[in-house]
Specification:
With about 325 residues, this protein is α/β, with parallel strands linked by helices. It starts with 9 loop residues before the first strand and ends with a helix. Helix 7 (about 190-210) links the parallel strand 7 and strand 8 (about 210-215). Helix 3 (about 115-125) packs across helix 4. It has helices at about 50-60, 85-90, 115-125, 130-145, 150, 160-175, 190-210, 220-225, 245-250, 255-260, 325-330; strands at about 10-20, 25-35, 40-45, 65-75, 80, 95-100, 180-185, 210-215, 230-235, 235-245, 310, 315. The strands form 2 sheets. Strands 6-7-8-3-9-10-12-11 form an 8-stranded mixed sheet, sandwiched between helices. It has a 4-stranded antiparallel sheet with strand order 2-1-4-5. About 30% of the residues lie in helices and about 25% in strands. It is built from 11 helices and 12 strands.
């Protein structure tokens, strides 16, 4: 089914995901909203523990007990995914939506050969012969840069390097040209050359098939060259969003500015690396009001209240004291 270019492939509204623990309730995803159009690539960025991966798992329906999605809506081309039967969700996963994990062994079975696993992924969603499924598997391995694909199909995951296992997982996710792919830092273990090849394949897939892509990462340089839009997360909330040019060239939230300024490439030669002071707060013990206020040099008494998410000119911002000018951000 060809995607309607006027309807968002994915629309997430007021999503809340919580984990009930003995120490209290962890608000891993706290009132998150965004949408991704067909063929669009969205970067989801932030420090470790900001809620990026949990947002992806929530969309995929992969939150296990004691976690649960407690509120919100997840629409895939207008169809609500929250609350649908588990069997229906399994049919959707791998066909209409796919996720590439940071750890490829979350995708690959260590006791099955690569050809068995890849052909199974093809045959589950396509009415083709085993010979055709094998040919598709071989071509997919070649596309992600794995040499001697015929030989590699007969190998087991433990016979691959970590980077090669990740490329197999990426190849499986690309098989069915799904409507939506969620990538959870999938190129972390890959060298720069292979990373560039994978990013090119992702962009090509989105352009040609209208697949929407969410790229979860802490690497702003990847987002700058890959994504169309970007959402910046902190302590379970989106604090700023907009086009890549808007957010990366004119950051308005102090946290976004801090992330960009801390990139080594932006640091003057011979000067200590810039960094955001302090640590990301525990989601079990968030400060009152703005979660970033204890690390922010612009904080005031107003920040003891939680700032609303204001939207204007295609941008969204959650801050009482935003940065307004390029000179101020420098």
């Amino acid at each position: 089914m060809k995607a309607d270019p006027m309807i968002p492939t994915l629309s997430v509204a007021h999503l809340h995901t919580q984990f009930t623990t003995r120490a209290g309730i962890v608000k891993a995803v706290d009132d998150v909203s965004f949408s991704v159009m067909p063929g669009q690539i969205m970067g989801l960025v932030g420090e470790s523990g900001s809620g990026k991966s949990m947002t992806g798992y929530s969309i995929m329906g992969l939150i296990d007990h004691p976690g649960q999605v407690t509120q919100g809506s997840i629409l895939l081309q207008g169809r609500e995914l929250r609350g649908i039967p588990a069997e229906a969700m399994r049919t959707i996963r791998g066909d209409r939506i796919a996720m590439i994990f940071q750890d490829p062994m979350m995708t690959l079975n260590p006791v099955l050969r690569i050809d068995t696993q890849m052909m199974e992924a093809v045959l589950a969603h396509h009415n083709v012969s085993k010979d055709t499924a094998r040919a598709m598997s071989r071509d997919a391995l070649a596309r992600v840069g794995i040499p001697s694909p015929d030989e590699r199909l007969l190998a087991y995951p433990h016979q691959f390097s970590g980077g090669m296992r990740q490329r197999v997982a990426i190849a499986i996710a690309l098989f069915n040209k799904p409507d939506l792919i969620i990538c959870d830092e999938p190129t972390t273990a890959l060298d720069v050359t292979i990373q560039g090849q994978i990013l090119y394949e992702m962009q090509k897939l989105c352009r040609e098939s209208g697949t929407a892509l969410i790229w979860i990462t802490h690497d702003l340089s990847v987002v700058a060259g890959l994504a169309d839009t970007v959402c910046v997360m902190y302590a379970g909330k989106i604090v700023e969003s907009g086009t890549v040019r808007q957010v990366l060239e004119q950051p308005r939230h102090p946290y976004t500015h801090g992330l960009i300024a801390s990139a080594p490439s932006r640091n003057p030669r011979g000067q200590p690396l810039r960094q955001i002071p302090g640590m990301t707060p525990s989601l079990l013990n968030l400060p009152t009001g703005c979660a970033f206020r204890e690390r922010c040099d612009r904080a005031s008494a107003a920040c003891l209240e939680s700032p609303p998410l204001d939207q204007a000119d295609g941008r969204a911002l959650r801050c009482f004291h935003p940065i307004h000018t390029l000179v101020e951000a420098a």
